[in-house]
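Pasting as-is:
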Amino acid sequence: MAAKSTQKSGGEGIKLAAQNRRASFDYFLDDRFEAGLVLQGTEVKTLRGGKGSLAEAWVKVDGSGEAWLMQAHIPEYEFGNRNNHDPVRPRKLLLHRTEIDKLRRQVGAQGVTLVPTRIYFKHGRAKLEFAVGRGKNVADKRQTAAKRDAKRDIERALKERGRR
């Protein structure tokens, strides 16, 4: 019997669990990184169910050379018992030493932060994609919204033209 494909969100063997949609609106996103996540069993079950939020999450690189996902909200597993996990506990990221050193150098710059963009399962393993982000000011956000609206208007006009 052939194995069932779990192709979602564009890649082979990738299933999206949580996404931070505001990240590209609030930050200029530069370099992107992929890291493994150290999770408890009930966290994995909750993420596989599509629950979880990266809205207030950020990535921290500490002095001991480890990277952590902070303030990510993964709700308690509804069928769990008293051994359920804490919903907003810090979660360790699995990165190579060279990647951590590169991140530490980049975060040292003024106004730069590490922004989680999505959590997904790749070949059965939980992964976090995060980017190096520089904060946008109000004028930049207005410009982003104007570009998005203009693109939407163009697509709408092309769609109308195609109908005629």
